[in-house]
UniProtKB/TrEMBL annotation:
Signal peptide residues on this chain, from the entry's feature table: none
Keywords of the record: Cell inner membrane, Cell membrane, Hydrolase, Manganese, Membrane, Metal-binding
BP terms from Gene Ontology: lipid A biosynthetic process
Keyword Cell inner membrane: yes
Claim: Cell membrane is one of the keywords in the record: yes
CDD domains: MPP_YbbF-LpxH (cd07398)
Entry protein name: UDP-2,3-diacylglucosamine diphosphatase
């Protein structure tokens, strides 16, 4: 099992945020949420050593050879500012921005991951992933993901004019009920939550202290066996939640420029 070891400096913290879905449901509402996220990044930059962006930063993202989607200038600029301050930025590709290529790596210096990753931080073992496609069930989505990540399908899509391609993609993306959060407001129970099932199976063969995911949108910290914790980071649509790790993990809410313990 390959893992990245991060030695935390004294007084420094690791931050996690997921599922911003910028661009949805329309540019006006998205901009208000973007401004809030930027205020949060401004607040954490003083003590952040590492920032994990755990997927679906954009409601849709596609990179052509010489073109990227319009917008998101302030968000991308703030991420670049944090990177220039020496904060390590790790970006996990989600199901809405799975066509991410090398733009964030080349232009900003982020490290981009397309699959789950293992980290060791502060002597603790972490499994990190956006969460889509892991665990049992959701076969329809898994088939769709295979199609969208198929090189032939990607080749055909890139030859569409960007104006047409983005209009179609944003329409289909925003039709996804996930952006409303309605499907994620109810906890299904440990026996039906696919990421909990996946985490419990991993614990049978691996020592993991923290399982941290995006994708599910519902903020949650759940105690598992062997003193492990299962964490859903929530979203920046309804909950505006984020994770922070120094000696232990905390799930917090950002609201009106202040940090409050969740819930």
């Amino acid at each position: 099992m390959l893992k990245t070891i991060i030695n935390l400096e004294s007084g420094k913290k690791v931050y996690f945020a997921s599922d911003q879905h910028f661009g949805a449901p329309d540019p006006k509402e998205s901009k208000m949420r973007e401004e809030k996220f930027i205020r949060w990044m401004d607040e954490i930059k003083e003590d952040a050593q590492v920032l994990f962006l755990m997927g679906d930063l954009f409601d849709f993202w596609h990179e052509w050879k010489h073109v990227i989607p319009k917008g998101y200038v302030r968000v991308l600029g703030k991420i670049a500012e944090l990177k220039d301050r020496g904060i390590h930025i790790y970006f996990f590709v989600g199901n809405h921005d799975l066509w991410m290529k090398d733009y964030l790596e080349e232009e900003i210096g982020c490290t981009v991951f397309y699959k789950k990753q293992y980290f060791e931080m502060g002597g603790k073992e972490f499994l990190l992933a956006h969460g889509d496609g892991l665990g049992p069930g959701d076969k329809g989505y898994k088939r769709m993901k295979k199609l969208f990540t198929n090189p032939v399908a990607q080749w055909f899509f890139k030859w569409l004019h960007p104006d047409i391609a983005m209009k179609v993609a944003l329409y289909l993306s925003q039709k996804n009920k996930m952006i409303s959060g309605e499907e994620d407001k109810a906890f299904l129970g440990e026996e039906k939550e696919f990421l909990i099932i996946y985490s419990k199976e991993k614990l049978k063969t691996q020592k993991i202290d923290y399982f941290i995911y995006g994708h599910r949108h519902l903020p949650m910290v759940l105690d598992l066996e062997q003193k492990a914790k299962y964490i859903n980071l929530g979203d920046w649509i309804s909950y505006f939640t984020y994770g922070v790790f120094e000696h232990d993990f905390e799930l917090k809410t950002f609201k009106d420029g202040t940090k409050k313990n969740y819930p």
